[in-house]
Amino acid sequence: MPAAVARIDQTPFEAAITGLTHDGRGVARRADGKAVFVAGALPGERVMAKQTSRSRSFDEAVTLEVLEAAADRVAPRCAHFGVCGGCALQHMAEDRQIVAKQNVLMENFERIGHVTPERILPALTDSAWGYRRKGRFSVRRVEKKDKTLVGFRETDPRFVAEIARCETVIPEVGDAIGALARLIDGLQARREIPQVELIGGDRMHGDNAHCGIALTFRHLSPLSQSDRDAIVAFAQQHEFAVFLQPGGIESVHPLWPADPRLAFTLPQWNLELKFRPLDFIQVNAGLNGHMIQHAIDLLQPQPEDRVLDLFAGLGNFTLPLARSVREVVGVEGEAGLVQRARENAEHNGLGNAKFYAADLAKDLSGEPWMREGFDRLLLDPPRSGADFVLTQLPLKQFKRIVYVSCHPASLARDAGYLVREKGWKLRAAGVMDMFPHTAHVESIAMFER
Predict the structure, then answer these.
(1) DSSP state, 402?
(2) Single pTM value for the model
(3) Could you give the percent of the chain with pLDDT greater than 90?
(4) Distances (CA, A) of 445 to 102, 282, 320, 325, 361
């Protein structure tokens, strides 16, 4: 036992849970007032817990027994919940999870941004199970167990969870995790495969080249012909496309079929977006369609508008916007995504969507699109937010800004800048359940001058 763990008093203690952390753990207080974050506990509960670690400002613990359960508590659907780190909230009723996420967003607005939205938007939700169409499975050969594990990291990230199936991953893959583990365990290179990435588009029946779902095997040494044959047989059985990745992203290449076609549709806008196996796409297909419509409704673009879409990716927002405005310009930092976005615009016959590659965390004064006039701004930045690009934009040109966020703290910070330093109004904000059963908070905000 490590010395640091040995010094922790692991005597079970009773705790009254008064809140929820941003990562889905219950909050309790010691007699001396010190905070304890308790995994597996919900607000309103009394639990028996055991301390697992400590720091100067808070302790960490895990629930041993629920003495008084909250009304929000439900039985987790997944047998691996509590060990697998893929989900944090399966023990909370689905309709209460989104309320907890809304509370996180509003608390961040108040504490970090010192702003309050004039209107709280209704939460956006979709199917809570079998939704995850993009993810990364860790792979580890465990000699003591004489088996290969395939799954997400455990709550202790040093370990890979031993799972047979996943309830949140798209069923075609979620139901095949056990078979995938057995496949890899039978390969000569089973110790040389550290991860398998999944990505799912729309499967077109009757067209074998349009498999829809792809697995990318990262391998640290060349695969033998027998290993390649075994992977192809598995792919054919499950109707997956398979890619191999012996090195960096540029090394990814198809194993089977020879030229797989990956794409997803946005039927509301009669669009098909093609992608490559390691590209970023929104994880939850059903929620994505609702989110795009929600963003467009909030932006209120007019037929004569020019719209700027920052962090545009494959054109997830850009191309739907192009259906209803004079012109839309998408800017994205990753050159490969920009190329695919241009190809998607051409594929869908959209001549009024332009795309530029630019690092939006650096000086943009020399970028040609910065000198063009725009009417509205949509942005969907990474977790780090959009603070640097917002300081560079001539914000007075925009009538409205819609900000899609995957991290409430950076949204709150940037909202504080727009409202308190630039005189914008935070008209509306709300949450979207892109990742049900996890503590991940996706949100959207609309600003007006």
Answers:
(1) E
(2) 0.93
(3) 92
(4) 12, 18, 19, 21, 21
